[in-house]
Amino acid sequence: MAVIDSRTPLATEPQADPFLTTNEVAARYRTAPGTVRYWRHAGTGPRSFKVGKRVLYRESELIRWEQERDAEQNGTGQ
């Protein structure tokens, strides 16, 4: 009988999508946390969600938002 080590991820397991805080998003874009909060309030920033009182951002959502903004700025809007 084969023994599977549960500490070793299987190749079929999806990779986790890391969550970032407002401060981490601000650091990523080299801006102030207040700017990220303003983007959220104005609806112009990457999508976020709340867990309790914490606002979190999925890394995949940041990448999507970056690509969307890049397309808008380069005239190839979607």
TrEMBL record:
One of its GO terms (molecular function) is DNA binding. Keywords: DNA-binding. Gene3D superfamilies: Winged helix-like DNA-binding domain superfamily/Winged helix DNA-binding domain. InterPro entries: DNA-bd_dom_put_sf (IPR009061), HTH_17 (IPR041657), WH-like_DNA-bd_sf (IPR036388). Residues 19-69 form the Helix-turn-helix domain. Pfam families: HTH_17. It comes from the Bacteria. This is DNA-binding protein.
